Known about the structure:
Mean pLDDT: 95
Low-confidence stretches: none
Number of domains: 1
CATH superfamily: NAD(P)-binding Rossmann-like Domain
Distance between the termini: 22 Å
Number of strands: 13
Bound molecules: nicotinamide-adenine-dinucleotide, uridine-diphosphate-N-acetylgalactosamine
CATH architecture: 3-Layer(aba) Sandwich
CATH class: Alpha Beta
Strand content: 15-25%
Radius of gyration: 18 Å
Shape: globular
Order of helices and strands: EHEEHEHHHEHEEHEEEHEEHEHH
Amino acid sequence: MALFLITGGCGFIGSHLATALLRRGDQVRVLDDLSTGSRANLLPGCALLEGDVADPALVRQAMEGVDGCFHLAAIASVELGMRDWLGTHRVNLGGTIAVLDAARAAKLPVVYASSAAVYGDQAVMPIAESAAARPLSSYGADKLGSEQHARVAGAAHGVPTCGLRFFNVFGPRQDPRSPYSGVISIFCGRMAAGQPVTIHGDGRQTRDFVHVGQVVRALLAGMEAASLEAPVFNVCTGRPTSVLELAHAVAAACGVAPDIRHGPGREGEIRESYGNPALAGERLGLGEAVALEDGLRDVVAWLRAGSPGAADGFSR
Ligand code: NAD
Ligand code: UD2
């Protein structure tokens, strides 16, 4: 039995990871400021330290006695990064450096969330890890910065790391009420309530929607793969879905006729984004991805059950 720290463990992805760790018999400590996460997302048995991941003294305290850290705390929104450049940078890169710095005394392994946003617009699809990173958002730039500091942590300070470039993650517990939430939770929340959805632009932009169950498997495998070489892996399905196709798939999962409006395109919108999952499949040994339609059914069932917290059984 090991003790793991999860920063951002009260959030969407972190809370599914906490559940998986507890289920396999590990202990979990969470550091979270509850800005977008919630206590209800944690199962009893998780110790919660409430505060800021960019506070170095608090992070050192949170790291005491643990066997490894999963660093997921971030302001996970491209749009918020556009609006509050410096504020999000303090959390999204400053928080990562605080975690890596605290890990160096005991040389603890750190698995951290990067993002497909590091790639920006790419000409060649599906995107492999070897593609040159060219972020178009401050959020993506801070995730790329996190990868660079992870490399420094390994080379200069002996901290083993593994970075995971999540593509567009979806599943139960992604807040449908927040305008900064992922498109699937927004579309499911609105369509299940009989409301129209707004597509930014023509809807032909593509994304690679990966179920949170697959992301949790990647995080657990990432802890085993963490090394001083600071590897990074895509976490994706390799399948593109346009936002327009997605709207129709969500309508089908909700059993409603789609009511789709089109609004202006988003600033800095990435046109095409789907990843090559081969390297992660080989090195992390991830199984078959959950099909989009099956995953959407999970989200709709969770919403119809009243969006319950962690003791909900909505984990794959
Ligand atoms: P989330 O907003 O549900 O979770 C983030 C958690 O971090 C929340 O519980 C929030 O309260 C906490 N947090 C935010 N700022 C903090 C701070 N200053 N100090 C302490 N805690 C803080 O988002 P998520 O979707 O679960 O994302 C988890 C990680 O995965 C993030 O790093 C995000 O950038 C990354 N990611 C997510 C996706 C996705 O599609 N959801 C894709 C790529 C990468
Ligand atoms: C980015 C990252 C993702 C993750 C996320 C964190 C890429 C390719 N992906 O996701 O990895 O880090 O940021 O927030 O960089 N949309 C609508 N209507 C809506 C909401 C969204 O049309 O009501 C569109 C949006 O314009 C975009 C797509 O849906 O084309 C996905 O948007 P999102 O906000 O769910 O995620 P995205 O791609 O910004």
